[in-house]
Design goal:
This protein has 268 residues and is of the alpha+beta class. Helices cover 29% and strands 30% of the residues. It contains 6 helices and 14 strands. The strands form 4 sheets. Strands 4-3-5-13-12-11 form a 6-stranded antiparallel sheet. It has a 3-stranded antiparallel sheet with strand order 1-2-14. The protein has a 3-stranded antiparallel sheet with strand order 6-8-7. Bound molecules: adenine. The site of adenine has 6 residues, from strand 13.
Length: 268
Amino acid sequence: MRFLRAAFAVFFFCRAEAADAEYKRILVQPGQDAVEVRLPLTDVTGPARVKRMEAAGVGIPVAPTRIRLDDAAFIEWQIGYDTTDPRHWSVAPGIEFERAGRKKYGCELSKLLAESRRLGLLSETELRAVRQQLDSLRAATLEDTEKLTVGPDTAPGHALPEGFARYVERVPIFEKNTPCGRIEIQLKQKQRAVGYQAMVYACLPLAQWRTSDGSARGPGAARSKETVIVRFTRDNVSFLLDIVRAFGIASREHNDDLRKILDALLAL
Ligand code: ADE
């Protein structure tokens, strides 16, 4: 009896946990004349985080339920394009490729592209043109040509105790601004290897956020577990191609992956 009670408790706990985590899932959903992506506002440790653009031009993370989100707010989405899980909720059916002997399935950006193609928002000609651009961008990617630098701090400051001197690390950030949002490429030092790793972020401002009924989300603090929708239509679908080009510029590995994804998409 005690065993049964414990088993029930574990079962209901796991179900509650799963329901709790559902809002964190980044979902790519095709509509009639648009592809929509649903993003969480309050998953502060996930790939989509709310930040606020400060006067200095840098985005600062905020506690979305505790401040009034206004026009300076944006979602910084570390948009993915692949997964090793064929049952992932945002997988793109039919887009498969290999990297270093491992099978990968297209996901998120791949699904956005595939659904845009299916709905006729992106033409085969446009996709072929970007595929060609990726070939030429591969020769000199940011991961190969750019670097972080460290130097003495030239700004006047107070002396440090115990013979310490202040140095400053300069980390390049690459940005492209579009009417739909901003794309950022950041170089980070690799965690367990030598060299740099290029991270690509799609930064989506509050002006692009909608509620589930399609109306503008508008300003205001986030509700607990709130999600918002961003729509890609014929008018702003070129943003997705800008993201593809960003991966193509960022690193050879991303460039290779995106070329395989576009080849698979064009062969569908
Ligand atoms: N790999 C897949 N998506 C990525 C992203 N947005 N930035 C860096 N590496 C990635």
